[in-house]
Write a structure and sequence with these properties.
- There is one protein chain.
- This protein is an alpha/beta fold and 242 residues long.
- It has eight helices and seven strands.
- The protein has helices at residues 13-24, 40-47, 61-75, 98-126, 138-142, 148-168, 193-202, 211-222; strands spanning 4-8, 28-33, 51-55, 80-83, 130-135, 173-180, 233-236.
- It has a seven-stranded parallel sheet with strand order 3-2-1-4-5-6-7, sandwiched between helices.
- Strand 2, helix 2 (40-47) and strand 3 (51-55) form a beta-alpha-beta unit.
- Helix 1 crosses helix 8 (211-222) and helix 3 (61-75) runs parallel beside helix 4.
- The longest helix is centred in the middle third of the chain and has 29 residues, at 98-126.
- The protein is globular.
- The termini are far apart.
- It binds NADP nicotinamide-adenine-dinucleotide phosphate.
- NADP nicotinamide-adenine-dinucleotide phosphate is lined by residues 8-15, 32-35, 37, 56-59, 84-88, 107, 135, 137, 180, 182-183, 185-188.
């Protein structure tokens, strides 16, 4: 029986790479995003019953609940949850509108807490066992000028990981964070050429990361070989934070 994994924000970037790799590895996958995008339709066609997409805004409680319920109705209680959907909003905190701060917190933090809560209830009712992986960020550990509110949400996710790992460990559910460094995705498209050069100069491995650098760690944490790893943040950043 193929294991079902829920991945939020799977229409592009890291989420899309996770969805594709999970399907290739033999998982069934449910994913959501606010818009379908160009990459998912051919995947949905190719993978039939193994891939489910639902339109949802993770920053909206009712929409998120609707997605989780629909995913469970379609593919059953999930083995894993990857909290990947996230937004970044650059701006000096002193002038960043509060409405933007709220949106960051609702999407990156509250949305992930809500999905974890909803999925955990199902995992526990099934008798335990499972994986929750939160995609945080090196920014939550090291900070970056202009990303204070974003950093707070990502540090919050790492805190969620540690506390939840303690709460559900006895039920064989592991909770870990994967914290990427700067990835070459749409989200980092707002970096100026100067900022990119600076990041590359400061990265021991001498480049920005890619989704392909991060996905193997997620596959590992989902697998049976990672059954005794919980409450950890695995940083994948080319060494910039070391
Ligand atoms: N890129 C980096 O340098 C980097 C570094 C460290 C950590 N991360 C983290 O990695 C994760 C993925 O980032 P990425 O670079 O792949 O971002 P991305 O290219 O912007 O993709 C974000 C994905 O999340 C979805 N999404 C965004 N807001 C959503 C919402 N409110 N509800 C549902 N889906 C939503 C997007 O689809 P829609 O827009 O259609 O909703 C898209 O599928 C994020 O949590 C990010 O914070 C990224």
């Amino acid at each position: 029986m193929k294991r079902h994994v829920i991945v939020t924000g799977g229409s592009r970037g890291l989420g899309l790479a996770i969805v594709t790799s999970l399907l290739d590895a033999g998982y069934r996958v449910s994913t959501c995003s606010r818009s379908l995008g160009d990459a998912l339709p051919p995947l949905l066609e190719a993978h039939g019953d193994d891939l489910f997409w639902h339109q949802a805004d993770i920053g909206d409680a009712a929409s998120t609940e609707g997605f989780i319920q629909a995913a469970i109705a379609k593919l059953g209680v999930p083995w894993g949850l990857i909290n990947n959907a996230g937004i970044a909003r650059e701006g000096i905190l002193a002038t960043l509108p509060l409405v933007e701060v709220d949106r960051l917190i609702q999407t990156n933090l509250t949305g992930s807490i809500q999905t974890a809560r909803a999925v955990l209830r199902q995992m526990l009712a099934r008798g335990g066992g499972g994986r929750i992986i939160n995609i945080s960020s090196i920014i939550g550990q090291r900070g970056y000028t202009g990303l204070a509110a974003y950093a707070a949400t990502k540090a919050g996710l790492d805190g969620l990981t540690r506390a939840l790992a303690r709460e559900v460990g006895r039920r064989r559910i592991t909770v870990n964070s994967v914290a990427p460094g700067y990835l070459d995705t749409e989200m980092s498209g707002t970096l100026s050429a100067g900022q990119r050069d600076q990041i590359v100069r400061r990265t021991p491995l001498g480049r920005l990361g890619t989704a392909a650098d991060v996905v193997p760690a997620i596959l590992f944490l989902l697998g049976d070989g990672a059954a005794f790893i919980t409450g950890q943040t695995l940083t994948i950043d080319g060494g910039i934070g070391c």
